[in-house]
Each structure stands twice: as C-alpha cells, then as structure tokens.
Amino acid sequence: MAETVKITFDGQTVELPLLVGTEGEKAIDISRLRAQTGLITWDPGLANTGSCSSAITFMDGERGILRYRGIPIEELAEHSSFKETAFLLVHGVLPTRKDLNRFSVLLNDHSLVHEDMQIFYQNFPRASHPMGILSSMVNALRSFYPVLSTGEEEINITVTRLLSKVRTLAAMSYRISRGHKVVYPRPDLPYCANFLNMMFDSPVNPYVIDEDIVRALSVFWILHADHEQNCSTSAVRIVGSGRVNLYASISAGIAALWGPLHGGANQAVIEMLSMIKDQGVSIRRVLERAKDRDDPFRLMGFGHRVYRTYDPRAKIMKKMCDRVLRKFNLQDPLLNIAQELEAAALADDYFIDHNLYPNVDFYSGIVLRAIGIPTSMFTVMFAIGRLPGWIAQWKESMDDPDWRLCRPRQLYIGPKINAYVPIDERG
Ligand code: CMC
Questions:
Q1: Which atom of ligand 1 is nearest to the CA of 354?
Q2: Range of the domain at 32
Q3: Is residue 65 part of a domain?
C-alpha cells in the first residue's frame, strides 16, 4: 500500500499521498490540501517545495552529485561536447552519429539572424548590460521568427533555431558594444569554435582557433547546461505555464539569471577579487565582512541553496582553470587571491558551520578571462550554456500531464477593509 502522511488540523485528520522519486527522495502531495483543510503551505524562497516532477537532471546537494539524464557531470565534462550534451538534455538520449550530424546541420542552417536585428543593437545605450540586451533580443526573436509549436519536428526547429541564434546574438552584442563589425557564423566551424570566431576574429588579426580553448569553452558550457529547478529555470517554467511562446519564456529566464545571487555571481566574483587586489583588502577583512550580519557583503561564488558540500561543477572548473592557465603560461593574480580566499574560508568555523563551499562561479570567471571573454559578458556565457536546460525544461513542462497555470497563493498581512477617502479629505 502506498505511504501517506497524516495531517491533523481543526479536529480533522487528512491523509496526503507520499510521492517517491527514482532516487528515493520523498514528497508530500499537497495538491488537495486547501480543498481538504482550507490550509495553504508557507515556504519563502520555495526551499522545501517541489514544483514539478522532472526526468532531466538529478542533484544530491548532500553528496555533491549532479547528473544529466542519469549521466554523471564528471563523465560528460570528460567525454562529451557541449553540442552533444545539449542534444542529450533536449531530446533525453545521447545522439547517434547520424543524429549528431543532423543536429549540426540544423544548428548551422539556423545560425544567421535577421539583418534588421542589428538595427536594434545600434539603439541600446552603449553602457547597457549585455544581459539586458540579450533578454530583449531573445524576446524580439518572436517577431522575426514564428513559433512553430505543433508537432515534434516543428518544435525541434524552434528549439534548434534558438540554440543557434542565441550564440550569434551574444557574439553580435559584444562586437557592436565595441563598435566593431559583426562577424557572421561560419559553416565550417563547430558550435564552440564558431562562437569564439564570431567574438574575436578581426580583418587585421584573424582569430586562430586553439583546440584547448575550444575544449575549455565546451566544458564551461557543459557544466552550466542544466541545474534542475533553479531561479531562472523556474522563471522559464512559470512564464511558460501561461502558455506564452518559447522565446518569451527563455527571455524571462535570461532576466532571472542576471541577478548576482544567481548567474550574475560569476561577474560578481571577479569584481570581488579585483576589489581585494586593487584596494589591498586583507583576506581576513573580507571574511569578517562576509560573516557580519549587519553588512550586506557576501562571499561571492560561495554557498548554494542545494549543495551542502563542494559543488561538483566547481571541482571540475577549478581543475580546468589550472590546466588552461598552465597551458598558456598565464599568470592571473586573481587566481592566487581566489585560492587564498578559498583556503581561508574552508578553514573558518562560520563557513564550516553554514556548509558554505565554492560554487561553480568561484573559478569560472578566471577560466573565462583566460579565454579572453570580457567580464561584462560572463553572465551571457552562463546564459548560452544554460539554454539547453531551459529548453528541455520548457519542453517537458509543455508535455506534463500534471501541468497547471503556475499561480501560488499568499498569506495576506495588509489592512482589513479600508474606506476610500476622496482626495480633498485626505490629511
Ligand atoms: N557569504 C556569507 N554568508 C553566506 C553566504 C555567502 N556567500 N551564503 C550564505 N550565507 C549565510 C547567510 O548569511 C545565512 O546565514 P545565517 O543563517 O547565519 O543568517 C546562511 O548562510 C544561509 O543563507 P541563505 O541566504 O538563507 O541561503 P540560500 O540558500 O538562500 O542562499 C545563495 C544561496 C547562493 C543565494 C547564497 O549562498 C549566496 O548569496 N551566495 C553568494 C552568491 C553566489 O555565489 N551565487 C551563485 C550560486 S551558484 C550559481 C547558480 O546556480 O546560480
């Protein structure tokens, strides 16, 4: 017999079903709680709330496990490419060679963006943040490209179009922000190399593709490709639940990712490390500030809602960071500061007691700097990586038999009934 959970309230006991996931995690099904008891649940930040069932990504925050479609992140980072991982997330299985070739052809076919979109770019003020621009441009895609939403094949075209065009739009935004001519995608280059070429090629200094840099970018994107129901993915699902088009849902995800507590942390980490270096702030002082409840400062790149141990992505990122810097014989002073800061935080009682460990963003900025990506583009890089995850989650939500419009409840704490006072009678 299926397990249940009993709740007694107001002299009445109701039995709520217990749902069990593949990995044995358990959830109380409260979908009929209000109908049965009049109660709602209270969970700020939704830290204890399962908002959907999903077969895409598994995370175990206590044991530091992350798997996409059951495959450990360590194996994907070692053996897969970003393109293959994107296929895995979106379609649910690893592609055959034929699938992958067809996927490459489609990505290539859809890589150009409408020329009129360049006019949009010209009109953003120069100081605009690339994340704001990217979110707007992805939303604008809807006006240029219809959403084909009937049938698997049509959805695949919309999805591939998005995966390919967002990469082009991101590179375009960088070029235009520097006042440089846009570089078009090249059909002979694979996904990651094509992006680097669009970013950095110049008529006076042709970009030379280095396979180690391409590999570093591919792994960076694999590590960011999905992370189950995080803030931006939830935004994609919530916005999508109103049955808006895919572009608008992804645009909402990009906006959510921008925040410094979420994807914007990679930029915030480099700003923090630069501040320590430029202002000569001691590591001890940085930790003191991070621990001070009256100071809004937090150690950026540390802590996570789900991980209570070292983020498995951060372990891979740290190794990659060492490898890339060694290969190119680069000395980044920020790496020394990061290592010193990490060692001091991991030995500090506050960080130990709060289970605060480095997350994926702690070392990722140093890798991106080594690749040549400017700090203002860091979160855009995260967004390109997260795209397959957002798309997979959106697709899954569209087919979910339990789908309902997302519409949480609240505990109202405002005034009870209040009279309307005409303007001349207000004090
Ligand atoms: N530095 C100092 N104290 C921290 C930090 C930090 N980075 N993170 C959490 N804490 C403390 C917090 O002050 C609180 O202490 P107390 O219980 O004594 O009041 C306790 O730990 C719990 O914090 P919380 O904010 O309730 O925890 P959360 O699960 O809501 O926060 C977080 C998760 C990621 C927002 C937070 O750890 C944080 O702000 N980290 C820095 C920003 C960052 O690196 N974000 C990237 C996350 S990974 C990329 C992604 O997937 O988005």
A1: 21
A2: 4-60
A3: no
CB 184 within 8 A of CB 169: no
Does residue 193 lie in a domain region?
A: yes
112-159 residue pLDDT tens: 988 888 888 888 887 888 999 999 999 999 888 876 566 777 878 888
Quote the pLDDT of residue 150.
65
Same domain assignment for residues 251 and 303: no
| Centre of ligand 1 from the C-alpha of residue 47, in Å | 13
Burial of 186 (0-12, 13-18, 19+ CB in 10 A): middle
Together in a domain, 275 and 246: no
Residue 171 in domain: yes
Q: List pLDDT tens digits, range 281-294.
A: 999 999 999 999 99
- Identity of residue 367: V
Q: What is the pLDDT of residue 125?
A: 85
Q: Could you tell me the CATH number of the domain that includes residue 295?
A: 1.10.230.10
Global model pTM greater than 0.85? yes
Torsion of CA 414, 419, 423, 427, to 10 degrees: -70
Specify whether the CB–CB gap between 108 and 117 falls below 8 A. Answer: no
- In this structure, the answer to whether residues 51 and 122 fall within a common structural domain is no
Same structural domain for residues 175 and 289? Answer: no
Q: Which two tokens stand for residue 413?
A: 């704490």
Catalytic residue among 201, 226, 348, 361: 361
pLDDT tens for residues 189-201? Answer: 999 999 999 999 9
What is the tens place of the pLDDT at every residue in 52-84? 999 999 999 999 999 999 999 999 999 999 999
Nearest atom in ligand 1 to 305's CA: 29
Ligand 1 nearest atom to the CA of residue 359, by list position? 48
Whether residue 412 lies inside any domain: the answer is no
Residues 199 and 131 reside in one and the same domain: yes
Q: How far apart are CA 326 and CA 294, in angstroms?
A: 40
- Tell me whether residue 361 is one of the annotated catalytic residues: yes
Measured CA to CA, the distance from residue 27 to residue 17 in angstroms comes to 9
Residues with CB under 6 A from ligand 1: 45, 227, 230, 261-263, 265, 290, 298-305, 354, 356, 359-361
